[in-house]
Design goal:
The strands form 3 sheets. A 6-stranded mixed sheet has the order 1-2-13-12-10-11, sandwiched between helices. Strands 6-5-7-8-9 form a 5-stranded parallel sheet, with helices on both faces. It contains 21 helices and 13 strands. With 527 residues, it is an alpha/beta fold.
């Protein structure tokens, strides 16, 4: 494949970057038409790009790079079910999980849409049964609590959405356990009753070490007060491994399948989203899917100059490769979106945090940035000093919902004021004169940000927002020549952990390790 540094547009952008040396957001934002020319809307969500270090000419050059990198062609292949995950020989079809039943997507000669909607129907029936009290525990009591046991994409996506849509929560209380640290599951279980708890075990292979260890702990906890006959009433599986599910004791009628073309960090739209459906109801889960599907449609059909995920992705390339900005900050001005940065962090950094391209060649240019973030106003009292004045410039995404989820008008006005003030301060900075001659209060400004305003934090708009970020990551991966849909770094860590665990458990001698690890094993060995 051609590396992006060899495209003519890359050289054009290098020259354009030099020409932008004296670009001033202060001057640009004084223009009355700046907002109109640099903001876009999709699915009712406003994406304001006017506070970026970019002009319409910049966007033109960036879109030319996207065209040369064949982003449109790869996009068509992804939606059509072509196996663009070349290292694992898999299609990438999380988008099919939110497509209508009338669509046709062929994988290995099979139209997968009947399967997708069969699973959705199964999720709907089960969610209704649990939420209505029809599905009961082993003492004939209704389920009051659900524990989602998973890790990575089987945890972060559902956890983020359940917390974000907490105002729509009308079903059992959903808890999440992901960490292999026993304190995680112990702290959850001590608040619950076995008779009224349902466990959702989310593991594609049903062999993920952390998940299965926690699942076994949950099973042992249940069996302290119940017989094995109770397991089918209190455990369901989200998996592709029917044999493993059956051997664990879970009824296959309580297994919700998905296929290998759904990657972990893109899986909340599939059976992995069962905990979302249990928490907020299947109707709201369907609205989440609908919002994501509408963004899919926009990404496929909007003109490049108006295509929100395409512009988001290419502006990220602009900063990563031409300004050499190595990080990206996400600030959600809504406490319900507390886990947004953590969720997007996994989606972005596992996908594009790579140094080898699709053909196995090491790259000479930077790829995915460090993603971090916290809730908006909290961050203003922790790391925003660094964001405003450090020598390191960090592009920021500010996210807020126009409509509050409460009736505290002064609080929402303060929230919106802070949301607007932070992006304005980053863009304009503060001169020595404005700081009354105090150099410690001088801020350079010219620090880029996107302002994203949702009408309200509804299932539909949340689905659209998540899909926009998914497609942004896809765009950047294509431009950088990556396979964004595997994660060899994760696999390496698992591979190295296995022999160390055998040593710690006394099943193997402490041999063959480097000197540091060997001594640390001695320190941690139980006596």
């Amino acid at each position: 494949m051609t590396q992006p540094t060899h495209y003519p547009s890359w050289e054009t952008l290098k020259t354009h970057h030099e020409d932008m040396r004296d670009f001033s957001l202060r001057e640009e934002l004084a223009r009355a038409d700046r907002f109109a020319t640099m903001s876009r809307e999709s699915c009712g969500i406003l994406f304001d790009f006017s506070k970026h270090l970019a002009t319409e000419e910049t966007l033109t050059h960036l879109l030319a790079l996207a065209k040369e990198a064949k982003v449109e062609e790869m996009r068509t292949k992804m939606f059509a079910g072509v196996k663009i995950n070349n290292t694992e020989d898999r299609a990438v079809l999380h988008t099919a999980c939110r497509a209508p039943e009338t669509a046709e997507v062929i994988v290995d000669g099979e139209n997968i849409m009947p399967f997708v909607h069969q699973v959705l129907a199964q999720m709907e029936d089960f969610s209704h049964a649990v939420r209505s009290g029809e599905h009961k525990g082993y003492t004939d009591e209704a389920i009051t609590d659900v524990v989602n046991i998973g890790i990575g994409g089987s945890d972060l996506g559902p956890r983020f959405v359940v917390e974000a849509l907490q105002e729509d929560g009308s079903g059992p209380k959903v808890h999440f356990v992901s960490n292999v640290d026993g304190q995680d599951i112990v702290s959850v279980l001590k608040k619950l009753k076995p008779e009224t708890t349902l466990f959702v075990i989310a593991s594609k292979t049903f062999t993920t070490e952390e998940t299965m260890l926690n699942a076994q702990m949950a099973k042992d906890w249940l069996l302290k007060s119940a017989t094995t006959d109770a397991i089918p009433k209190h455990f369901v599986a989200l998996s592709t491994n029917a044999e493993g599910v059956k051997n664990f004791g879970i009824s296959l009628s309580n297994m919700f399948p998905f296929r290998d073309w759904v990657g972990g960090r893109y899986s909340l739209w599939s059976a992995i989203g069962l905990s979302i459906s249990l928490a907020v109801g299947f109707d709201n889960f369907k609205k989440l899917l609908d919002g994501a599907h509408e963004m899919d449609q926009h990404f496929q059909n909007a003109e490049p100059k108006d295509n929100v995920p395409l512009l988001m992705g290419m502006l990220g390339v602009w900063y990563r490769n031409f300004y050499n900005y190595s990080s990206h900050l996400l600030l959600a001005y809504d406490v319900r979106m507390d886990k947004m940065a953590k969720f997007i962090q996994q989606m972005d950094m596992e996908s594009n945090g790579k140094a080898v391209d699709r053909d196995g060649h090491h790259m000479s240019y930077a790829t995915g940035p460090l993603i971090f973030g916290e809730p908006g106003t909290d961050s203003q009292h922790s790391f925003m000093q660094w964001v405003h004045q450090s020598a390191d410039v960090v592009p920021v995404d500010f996210v807020i919902a126009k409509e509050a989820h409460h009736t505290l008008t002064p609080n929402h006005a303060s929230l919106c004021a802070n949301f607007l003030a932070q992006s304005r301060a980053l863009a304009l900075g503060q001169t020595l004169e404005e700081a009354n001659g105090d150099p410690s209060r001088v801020f350079s400004g010219n620090r880029p940000s996107t302002s994203i305003i949702l009408p309200k934090l509804s299932p539909y708009h949340l689905g659209a927002l998540i899909a926009a970020y998914e497609h942004k990551v896809f765009v950047q991966g294509v431009v950088w020549g990556l396979n964004s849909f595997d994660q060899p770094g994760v696999e390496l860590g698992k591979k190295l952990a296995k022999p160390i665990r055998e040593i710690l458990e006394g099943r193997a001698p402490n041999a063959g390790m480097d000197s540091s690890t060997s001594h640390l094993i001695d320190v941690l060995m139980p006596r």
